[in-house]
Amino acid sequence: MAKFIKSFGYAFSGIAYAFKSQFNFRFHLAALIIVGLAGWYFHLSKAEWLWIIVSSGIVLLSELFNTAIEVLVDLVSPGIHPQAKIIKDAAAGAVLVAAITSVIIGLIIFIPKIGHAA
Ligand SMILES: Nc1ncnc2c1ncn2[C@@H]1O[C@H](COP(=O)(O)OP(=O)(O)OP(=O)(O)O)[C@@H](O)[C@H]1O
User: Which positions are annotated as binding a divalent metal cation (predicted)?
Assistant: First the structure.
């Protein structure tokens, strides 16, 4: 049981590292809070909340993997290397795909509601 709780501590320290070191992680977290408030304001349905939660989770997940990949690349290849560039660019691309997907989901959910409210 103690080992299980300890592993939570390690996971939270990884999340804390991403939060402290990555502007994008903080930016996405702030966006998530704004979307959450907007969802509360517009009384989203259960299905709409599920889409928001899943897409936000995927964005944060991709940010955490991107952070891990950046640190790993810097560890194994501290100098400039064309393959290090490819690895970091592909990881950043994954974050971008997740972010674009979640923006599209957000637009599909919120545009009709904003139209209604206006
Ligand atoms: N070792 C390297 N060799 C070649 N190109 C690199 C290397 N490290 C970084 N780059 C290039 O610089 C870009 C930015 O890398 P960096 O590690 O600064 O990531 P970042 O997204 O700016 O991270 P952070 O969010 O920590 O500022 C990479 O996407 C890659 O194109």
Answer: 70
**What percentage of the chain has pLDDT greater than the value 90?**
91
Identify whether 21 is part of a domain: yes
Interhelix angle 23-41/82-117, nearest 10 degrees: 20
| Domain span including residue 99 | 9-117
4 domain residue, yes or no:
no
Number of domains present in the structure of the chain = 1
Q: What is the pLDDT of residue 3?
A: 85
Q: The tokens 């509601």 sit on which residue?
A: 113
Give residue 117's pLDDT.
77
1 within a domain of the structure (yes/no): no
Give me the CATH number covering residue 100: 1.10.287.3610
Closest ligand 1 atom to the C-alpha of 73?
1
Contacts of 26 (CB under 8 A, 6+ apart): 19
Rounded to whole angstroms, the Cα distance separating 30 from 22 reads 13
- Pocket (CB within 6 angstroms of ligand 1): 21-22, 24, 70, 77, 80-81, 84-85, 88-89, 92
